[in-house]
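Study this fold:
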Amino acid sequence: MDYTAAIQRFNADKRISQLHTKYELGSFLNYLSVSRREMSHSKFLAELLKEDSFHGTGALPLQLFMEAILERAIKQDTRLIECPDKRVVFPSLKSAIMNRNLSLSDIEVTAAECFSDKDSDIGRVDILVKCRVKPLAREDGKTVEYINIIIENKLYDQEFDRQTEKYYKHFNAFLKNESAGRVDSSAQKGGPRGLYNLYVYLTSAAPSDIDGLKEPICKCKEFVQICYQDILDRVLDPLLEQKTLSLRGRFFIEEYKRSLGFSYENLEIYSYEGGGKQSLNVKTTIMAISKKESDELYQLWSDYKELFKAAINEKNKQDDFNVDVDSSNITNKRTLYEYKGQPFTMSRLVEAIILDHLPECRMDDMNQLFKDVVNCGIITDDAKSSYFERIEVIKTKDYYPVCVFKQWTENGQYKFSDFCKKVKELGWYDVKEYEEEQLSYVDSLMLVEFYTKHEKLLTTAMEVIRHTQ
């Protein structure tokens, strides 16, 4: 392939200037280096849900947010809907949300709401919404006039210290008239007898990852799990269509929306896995993206697929120089393996195959399959383990982020050939070597520079392709 001509065609494409500006320059949140900070998203959403905030649309954002919750609640068979097998707890809430007949008022929203109770449980709710609604009848004869929405926001970490169960125990106590010894600011708004709690578990997962859930992946199953794509589709985009949206509100929402649609390599974040704060360099995923942007990136990838793949491969050659070094092979030959028509080094191939089959397995199931190949387990949720590496955000069937074993050789204890034999036995894949195109030094240098210049655009396009295949 003539890569010089391909790059010239790419540079002359009228779409590139606009896309480069969008993805390479980033959003306002990217400039502040907070586009993937959990607290930054919680604070923005808390401000968005307020009645008297920058958007100027009153209670509409909260109304739209509750509609997004209801849509997921229906898919997850929660207590908000009429299920033949379950006791109907609050069908009038479903009806009021669907018909936009809640009459939301007295809205109070706080981010990082701390609490403690008489059992010495302490916690910090990421977002707490308190509001008043028109009286809603419950099937038990009681009337609800106040609603709390308790939101746990998770971007990268899995839940630790059974957070959701603590939140449910604390806030549900008021509904049982057990508020003695607890701080209950909602008592100023009707007290426990007129109060209903709605629990939300917000994650950065792709919609396809949670569409099939019948319950949330958090410890407490009273939560409704939603994702940032739900917020973009059901809250942000409808708000941008409102004529009453202020100019300031439009700017903030459009910038925030842009920040959700990036996928960056090697972003430093802070994790609290295991209860301790640690810094991690991870590849971030797209949190949410509009269909229009997704279609644009998909078309761009289709038009320049060979150029993009060659640039990515040449960049990976640099990154993988010491990744798959076999101590018995003094030539340090870089062997590539073909998977789905693309080249992979040893570690990257293992990761790609495991990633494709993790939705079928829990972590223990996967390790059991490969116990004869890797006696310490092929995946782990311990990010500090020296023999493992988290390259992609990989999650098991039970939604735990994991790291993949990386110490592969051809003649050592953990033989790559044993892994290949195992995946063939499982019917997953018959591994074969990839016939790599031999490029001149000039072409290789040019492709690496092309990747470096357009890294964020290519990375985001790759993420779109991965979710659409």
User: Anything to note?
Assistant: The first strand starts at residue 105 and ends at 116. Residues 56 and 246 are 6 Å apart (CA to CA).
